[in-house]
Each structure stands twice: as structure tokens, then as C-alpha cells.
Design brief:
The protein has about 100 residues and is of the alpha/beta class. It has one domain (about 1-90): Transcription Regulator spoIIAA. Helices cover about 40% and strands about 30% of the residues. It has helices at about 20-35, 50-65, 80-85; strands at about 1-5, 10-15, 40-50, 70-75. Helix 2 links the parallel strand 3 (about 40-50) and strand 4 (about 70-75). Helix 1 (about 20-35) runs parallel beside helix 2 (about 50-65). The longest helix has 16 residues, at about 50-65. The radius of gyration is 12 Å and the shape is globular. The two termini are about 20 Å apart.
């Protein structure tokens, strides 16, 4: 998994698995602590994702909502969309599917 910050957007690429959750949590915490009210994350380069990584992403969304930060995911890859649908977590991403 790679995380890249370009301008006002974070691009996550590669495979998001349990082994990547610590890195995801750290990056998401940095985003929440930033002064930005809107957080943009591009998921077009995600090749695969497991339930552990999805749980981290859902927890990030909930944490952001608690402190009135808006998280916008864009360009969800087909593999990411498929994982959401299989797990029933697609309801958290209604605007992006």
C-alpha cells in the first residue's frame, strides 16, 4: 500500500490489508488533526482491500463526523466497490458508488 499526498488530495494505492492498518490509522489521524475541514481521498488505484482495512476506513469516517470534518472519497476502484458490496458497507459510501 502506498499513500501519497498531492495538493489537497490523498491518493491511496495498492493492496489494503490487515498489515497496512497501522499505517492507515496514522495517516488518517494526521488528516483529522490537520486544519482542513474537507478531506479528499482518491481510491482509484486500490487493487484489493480486506475487512480489516475497511474497518479502519469506517472508523475514520465516524471519527471525522464527530469533529465535523467532511470526508470525500473519489474514484472508487472496482475492487474497492466490490469489497464494500460484499461486506454490506456500501451504505457508508452511497454518494460514491
Amino acid at each position: 500500500m502506498e499513500i501519497e499526498a498531492i495538493a489537497e488530495e490523498t491518493i491511496i494505492s495498492g493492496e489494503l490489508f490487515y498489515s497496512d492498518t497501522e499505517k492507515l490509522v496514522k495517516h488518517f489521524q494526521q488528516l483529522l488533526e490537520s486544519g482542513k475541514d474537507d478531506i479528499h481521498i482518491d481510491l482509484s488505484r486500490v487493487e484489493a482491500v480486506d475487512t480489516a482495512a475497511l474497518q479502519v476506513i469506517i472508523a475514520f469516517l465516524k471519527s471525522a463526523a464527530q469533529i465535523q470534518k467532511k470526508v470525500m472519497f473519489s474514484n472508487l476502484s472496482e475492487s474497492f466497490k466490490s469489497a464494500l458490496e460484499i461486506t454490506g458497507l456500501d451504505a457508508f459510501f452511497n454518494n460514491e458508488l
